[in-house]
Design brief:
The protein has about 110 residues and is mainly α. The protein has helices at about 15-20, 30-35, 40-50, 65-80, 85-110, and strands at about 25-30, 55, 60-65. InterPro entries: DNA-bd_dom_put_sf (IPR009061), MerR-type_HTH_dom (IPR000551), MerR_fam (IPR047057).
Amino acid sequence: MIPDQRETPAPGSGGADKFDDDQYPAYTMGRAADMLGTTQNFLRSLDEAGLIEPQRSAGGHRRYSRHQLRIAARVRELVDEGTAVDAACRIISLEDQLHESRRQNTELRSHE
């Protein structure tokens, strides 16, 4: 799972906050697949790989955030270039770890 996926604070009580919240699970699996130009099975494979963990509606249906859709779109790019899904998921995880390490490094340097 992408480490920063769940670290974002929950949206405020106002309904408008949901539109601005990158983590809000606004998209159904069908809508997400349509937006990405992929299949629902592709999204399930990302869930099974542990890269994206969608929230579930009261009825148990997967719901995706914009943040998760951007991750899925990046995986799709890699797959379209010939990378296997499991390898693409690993690449995305490593890219995220590198980004986080760089962020922490910059933060530590700013406190010196």
